[in-house]
Each structure stands twice: as structure tokens, then as C-alpha cells.
Design brief:
10 helices; Cholesterol Oxidase, domain 2; 3-stranded antiparallel β-sheet; disordered C terminus; globular; binds flavin-adenine dinucleotide; 17% strand; 2 domains; FAD/NAD(P)-binding domain; alpha+beta
């Protein structure tokens, strides 16, 4: 549905690349108020404290874990109540699921049987371990996307106008000063209008479209811009580079108990649909449990994420008939890849999709970790708790066993797990695009505020850290307006009202 929608999904395709079987990958991105949080799986995880300490160490003061923790707490309305790690006075609901398939519960038990620690709060005292994810849904069971969490309540403010069905086609500049944006209301051939900015322009078009728009507007690597006939406003070589994602592979198995989610016309399907309709609250996401594990004891912090779903699905929910049979999948992704991709211009036409090189698996370390991840996944699925469910491995399949066979299988089957980040990285080195206050280097009155500013991807699902970035960005804008010099760390009380 949302995955294949041409209206609500940008539906990008990456370029074929030799290390991963010369096959383009489908890269969905949300195209609606709330962006990708309107199509995502709603899993709420923040990352490891060291992820943020690493950002700060790379020349980004105010982004270390101790500084961002209060910002995470500030956005959150944690159903379990407030504690040292969680806030309950924000506007983004974070709740526990109320519907869990028997096979998901068995999976968590099996993780324990396999010797992994169990964890009921991946965003608390420690990230490592396995259990059920919390989700960004309301306590009544609706999607708590960014629009619902942060926009709905302020929609009627007189100083806010929201335009939908409008495409920004470029940022306008007067010399090096951003002065507004050009928009098109009716597609490529539609009328173009200019919206002027009195104070500054905030670019939040996401990890693909933010660098694309910067380049279309003349901010990016000068050589690439000139090659497409785009006048150079500022030569900024890092725009579109540093693209990162968590490379993901899936173990898919049949469920001999027949109790997992299917679309087959049978009693359990009807029972599930009835629960969806009548159970109050019904809080569910297909990928409801998993965890953060180390692929090797020498890894200092978790380098793999497991995500389990009680449905026999193909990557990206493709293949309508796959869930006719009961089954389950275990996603395994590498959390700290050193491989990098890039977003470049296809042409100067803002309606031409950019060229995306995912750049997966150029490092042996990542492949080795995923090989160990598949072995660990198989070990978990072989535990006693899974005996009543495991009806045979379909993919990679029992014939794929040796390290070499697994490596080849991973190269052929690696996919996105949608955690793309890093194309306008924050920092002060030559390849940085924004500073610690999220202002674009070399130009004035322009900030980027979205997942593209992450210098390195967090070891987690990335919606929560993107919301944290947005909160810090908002604070930076307000401080600038009030005459403060820099963004700095912010520590507002959880119940402090925003002006
Ligand atoms: C299928 C899927 C599942 C995911 N599951 C999870 C999950 O369970 N948990 C989690 O934490 N994260 C998940 N994510 C990732 C997470 O939702 C995103 O990383 C997060 O929303 C931030 O994305 P972003 O910064 O790229 O911007 P986005 O959220 O993609 O927002 C960019 C916005 O800008 C708009 N835009 C872009 N270009 C233009 C233009 N030219 N003119 C006008 N508007 C424009 C877009 O339409 C969109 O609304 C998932 C993502 C996807 C796609």
C-alpha cells in the first residue's frame, strides 16, 4: 500500500553496483506531512550513547549523549512514565504494543535461551539485549508520526501556513544569502512561484532530497554543478557524499503452527482482523521485537540489530502471495558501516530523480559481521522456544552454509532497512555541509534539519534521533532570534512550554 504508492512515496531506485550483484534497490521515502514517519514501521529506538559522543568528538559541541538525552526526553510522551531516560510531557507518544503474535513471544524467549541478555528498554540504561520494541503510536493505537506529534496542535496558529501538493524546486539566493524558495504547484509544467524568507530558509527535505535541492540551487561540488549547467553559489564538496544506511538481510522461515500473520482465508486471519477492529487499544507493528547484539565478543558495543516480524514477507512487502502461507522473518542489519554511498544530480531538472549510489558492503568487516549475524539468527531460531513454530528456512536456505556461500548470498540479497542518513553531515572539516548549529557552511540564512546532517548513522532505527535533531534545530533557530551566539546544549525541563 504505502510502500507502492506513487502518491505517498518517492519510490526511489538506487543504481546497480558491482559489489552487490549489479541490481538496483528499491528505496521508499515518505511523501506526505510527517515525511517518512508517515510510512515507517514506528519502532522507537534512539541509538547508543557512544553514537552521539562520536558526533561531538568530530567537532560538534552540544551533540554528546549527555547533551542530547534531555532533548530526547523533551519530545517524548512515554506511556510508562518519566524516568532518567524518558520524558512523559512531550507531544510524541511512545507506547508498548498490545498485540503480540505467539511466534514473536517465542522469538524473544529463544533469544534468552541462546544466551543473549533480555532488555525491555533499548533506550534506557543499556542498549544491548533482546525484547519488544516500543512504538510511536498513540495510546489509542494510531500512528504518532511527526505531523501528528508536532504539527496538528499548532496548525491553527496565525503565523503558520502549510502548503501541501507543492514541490520546492530550488532555494533562491541573493549572492550567498538564501532569500526564499521556488515552488511548483502543479508538477513539472506547473506555475512556479517564489516564497520569500524574512529570516532564514530551513531545508528538511530528507536524506535524498535535501542534498538534491542544495545542488539544484548551486550549493555543492562546483565541478558537478557546472557539468549540469547550474550556476555555482558556493562550492561545497561534501553535499550528497557520506550517504550511509544499515545494510540488511533477512532470514525467512515457514511457521508450522500456522499462527503468524497471513492473508490466507482462514480462521486465524479473521481473528486477527477482528482484533484490529474491536480490540481497544490495538497497538501493533509487524516488526515488533528484536534487539541489539554484538556480532563478536570483541565488539565494544552492539554492531547488529535484529528485527523480527511474524509474517512471511519479502523485502519491502513485495510479493502479494508470499504471506498466503504462515511464516516469519528475521532482519539482521549492520549498525556501523564504514561503506559510503552518494547522491548526485541526474540533470538540472528538479523533477528528475537524483542518482543514488547506495555503496553497500565495500568493507569485509561488514560482510563478516553479517555472516556472523546470520549464524546467530539461525542459532536463535533453533532454540527450544521456536520448536513449535519453525517449519524450515526458505531463505537463505539450508544449502547456504559456508562463509563463502553466505557472503555471496548477502551480496546478492542485501537491501535497505530504510535508515539512510548523512548526506549533509554536520562538522567543521572540508567535507562537512552544516555546522553544529545546522547552518550550511559558506552561505547565509540557510539551515538543513533532517537525518542528512548525521555525521555518522546512529546504531538504531533513526526516526527518534531525527526528531531529536529537529528539536535541537528548533532551539538553535530560537536562540539565534533571541540573539544568542550559538546553539549549545539545551536542557529545558520536560514540562517547559515552548514560546
Ligand atoms: C518504509 C520505512 C520504514 C521505516 N521504519 C522506521 C522505524 O520503524 N523506526 C524508525 O525510527 N525509523 C524508520 N524509518 C526511517 C525514518 O522514518 C526516517 O529516517 C525519518 O522519517 C527521517 O527521514 P528524513 O530525514 O530522510 O526525512 P523524511 O522523513 O523523509 O522527510 C522529508 C520530507 O520532505 C518532503 N520533501 C522532499 N523533497 C521535497 C520537495 N522538493 N518539495 C516539497 N517537499 C519535499 C518529503 O515529501 C517528506 O515529507 C523508516 C523509513 C521508511 C521509508
Amino acid at each position: 500500500m504505502l510502500m507502492n504508492s506513487r502518491t505517498y512515496n518517492w519510490g526511489y531506485r538506487t543504481e546497480p553496483e558491482a559489489p552487490t550483484g549489479n541490481r538496483p534497490r528499491f528505496w521508499p521515502r515518505g511523501r506526505a506531512l510527517g515525511g517518512s514517519s508517515s510510512v515507517n514501521a514506528m519502532i522507537y529506538t534512539r541509538g547508543h550513547p557512544q553514537d552521539f559522543d562520536h558526533w561531538a568528538a568530530r567537532g560538534n559541541p552540544g551533540w554528546d549523549y549527555q547533551s542530547v538525552l534531555p532533548v530526547f526526553r523533551q519530545s517524548q510522551r512515554q506511556q510508562r512514565g518519566a524516568d532518567a531516560w524518558h520524558g512523559d510531557a512531550g507531544t510524541m507518544d511512545v507506547v508498548d504494543t498490545t498485540h503480540r503474535f505467539p511466534v514473536s513471544q517465542a522469538f524473544v524467549k529463544a533469544c534468552g535461551e541462546a544466551g543473549l541478555p533480555l532488555n525491555d528498554d533499548f533506550n534506557g540504561a543499556q542498549q544491548e539485549g533482546c525484547g519488544f520494541f516500543q512504538v510511536t503510536q498513540t495510546p489509542q493505537g494510531g500512528r504518532a508520526n511527526s505531523a501528528r506529534s508536532f504539527l496538528d496542535d499548532v496548525m491553527s496558529r496565525p503565523n503558520l501556513t502549510v502548503l501541501t501538493n507543492v514541490r520546492v524546486t530550488r532555494i533562491c539566493f541573493d549572492g550567498k544569502v538564501a532569500t526564499g524558495v521556488e515552488i511548483s504547484r502543479d508538477g513539472a509544467s506547473g506555475r512556479r512561484d517564489i516564497l520569500s524568507a524574512r529570516r532564514e530558509v530551513i531545508l528538511s527535505a530528507g536524506v535524498i532530497n535535501s542534498p538534491h535541492l542544495l545542488k539544484l540551487s548551486g550549493v555543492g561540488p562546483a565541478e558537478e554543478l557546472r557539468a549540469h549547467g547550474i550556476p555555482v553559489v558556493h562550492d561545497l564538496p561534501g553535499v550528497g557524499e557520506n550517504l550511509q544506511d544499515h545494510p540488511d538481510v533477512i532470514i525467512r522461515c515457514l511457521d508450522k503452527s500456522g499462527t503468524s500473520m497471513t492473508v490466507a482465508p482462514k480462521l486465524s486471519t479473521v481473528a486477527f482482523l477482528a482484533r484490529m477492529l474491536f480490540q481497544k487499544p490495538f497497538i501493533f507493528t509487524p516488526t515488533d521485537c528484536g534487539g541489539f547484539v554484538r556480532s563478536h565478543p570483541d565488539e565494544p558495543i552492539p554492531d547488529l540489530q535484529l528485527q523480527f516480524a511474524a509474517v512471511r514477507m519479502q523485502p519491502h512487502g513485495q510479493g502479494l502471495f508470499t504471506p498466503m502461507r504462515s511464516g516469519f522473518v528475521l532482519h539482521i542489519c549492520h549498525l556501523r558501516p564504514e561503506s559510503r554511498g552518494r547522491v548526485t544530480l541526474r540533470s538540472a531538472d528538479p523533477f528528475a530523480a537524483p542518482v543514488i549510489h547506495a555503496g553497500y558492503l565495500t568493507r569485509d568487516k561488514e560482510l563478516d559481521a553479517l555472516v556472523r549475524g546470520i549464524r546467530l539468527g539461525r542459532q536463535i531460531l533453533a532454540q527450544p522456544a521456536m520448536q513449535a513454530f519453525h517449519g524450515g528456512e526458505e531463505s537463505p536456505g539450508p544449502q547456504v552454509q559456508s562463509d563463502e556461500a553466505l557472503r555471496q548470498w548477502i551480496r546478492d540479497h542485501v537491501e535497505t532497512v530504510y535508515h539512510t542518513a548523512g548526506t549533509c553531515p554536520m562538522g567543521n572539516d572540508a567535507m562537512a555541509v552544516v555546522d553544529a548549529g545546522l547552518k550550511v557552511h559558506g552561505v547565509e540564512r540557510l539551515r538543513v534539519i533532517d537525518s542528512s546532517v548525521m555525521p555518522t548513522i546512529t546504531g538504531s532505527n533513526i526516526h527518534a534521533p531525527t526528531v531529536m535533531i529537529a528539536e535541537k534545530g528548533a532551539e538553535a533557530i530560537l536562540s539565534a532570534r533571541q540573539g544568542a551566539a550559538t546553539v549549545g546544549p539545551i536542557h529545558p525541563g520536560a514540562d517547559e512550554k515552548k514560546p
